[in-house]
Amino acid sequence: SEIRSELEQLEEEITEAQALCEQLSVLMGEQYLKDELRKRLETVALPLKGLEDLAGDRMNRLQMALASSQQFQQMFDELHTWLEDRLKQQAQSGPISAR
Which among 60, 57, 58, 51 is positioned nearest to 11, based on CA atoms? Predict the structure, then answer.
């Protein structure tokens, strides 16, 4: 799906950002700068994980809804066929008298 593709692209970008952060962290001497860099990366990476989980849950719910819809359609088609068969039988047997 399009959403899944976008999330995968974002995940790749996060991975690239993590690699850059690691490289910068090696160059930085002060621990507070390393901590700030890590925090900024987490503020982006953690919501992405939440979005991935949410998208996965929604996809599962959509698949369940599709399966239910298909099951309903099959049941409806069977009912429709049964009703048509009964109508044909009734037409062939003629009218029912009240005698």
Answer: 51
